[in-house]
Amino acid sequence: MKKHSKRYKELLKSTNKEKKIELKEIIDLVKKNSTTKFDESIDVSLRINLKQSKGGDLSLRTVVKLPNGSGKKSKIAVLCESSKVEEAKKSGAEVVGSDDLLEKIGAGKLNFTKLVCTPSMMSKIGKHGKVLGPKGLMPNPKLGTVTNDIAKTVKDIKTGLVEIRNDKDGNLSSTIGRKSFSSEKLLENYKHFIESIKKEKPDTIKGEFIKNIFITSTMGVSYKVKVK
Predict the structure, then answer these.
(1) Is 155 helix (H, G, I), strand (E, B) or coil?
(2) Domain residues of the chain, as ranges?
(3) How far apart are the first and last CA of the chain?
């Protein structure tokens, strides 16, 4: 049986499953219950309707640019041709390279959390897909990480671009900020995130696309948000 800490049990006392809580109050409670010493992540978790009327299940994978950023720090690597190395270094990426970076990747030296790649280097990186893919590091044109506009892509990632993908049961989650963010900024990020997901609803999905929504912090309890 899973045991909870005294801190967590105290947090549970602040929840009332019978009471309907407004969104702003939920965010205030989540911030209030972020009682650890570090700057906890404020996260939203959704369950979406996967079943399509014309067969098959939906696979949602996209990116959302949060208006107030995510507060998450990314160590970005840029894989590009030799002629673009200097440009990549000026973009603010922490790791930059061409064939030398490919060698490091091949040796398993993945000292970065995001990998941006220029289109001309994709043919060379393909053989490392089995290593990069499971770690979520494989560049993908749909996610904007395969690009010739290195400066813009690096800036977007550093200022709040978050990647979204669902699992086989239709669950997906993302950070919408940190407990140090104001409630207003978290609320704005939340609304933008939900509206962005709604826009991904295919025409073949009937009924509500988002089934349920929960907001929580890294070490806190979750609160269910009313789905309109």
Answers:
(1) helix
(2) 20-70+160-225, 76-158
(3) 36
Longest dimension (CA), the chain: 62
Cβ neighbours of residue 133 closer than 8 Å, sequence gap 6 or more: none
Adjacency order of strands within the sheet including 95-97: 95-97, 76-79, 114-117
Identity at 224, one-letter amino acid code: K
Backbone angles phi, psi at 163, to 5 degrees: -95, 135
HSE, side-chain direction, 13 A CA sphere, residue 121: 27
Backbone angles phi and psi of 197, in degrees to 5: -70, -40
* Nearest C-alpha neighbor of 218 from the set 166, 184, 161, 180: 180
Fold of 20-70+160-225: Ribulose 1,5 Bisphosphate Carboxylase/Oxygenase (3.30.190)
The Cα 45–Cα 166 span in angstroms is: 10
Residues 6+ positions from 56 with CB-CB distance below 8 Å: none
Query: How many DSSP H helices and E strands does the chain contain?
Result: 8, 9
154-170 pLDDT, tens digit per residue, is 999 998 899 898 888 88
Give the span between the Cα atoms of 110 and 95, in whole angstroms: 10
pTM: 0.82
- In degrees, rounded to 5, the angle at the alpha carbon of residue 103 between the alpha carbons of residues 115 and 92 is 35
* pLDDT, tens only, 130-147: 889 988 899 999 889 999
How many residues in the chain?
228
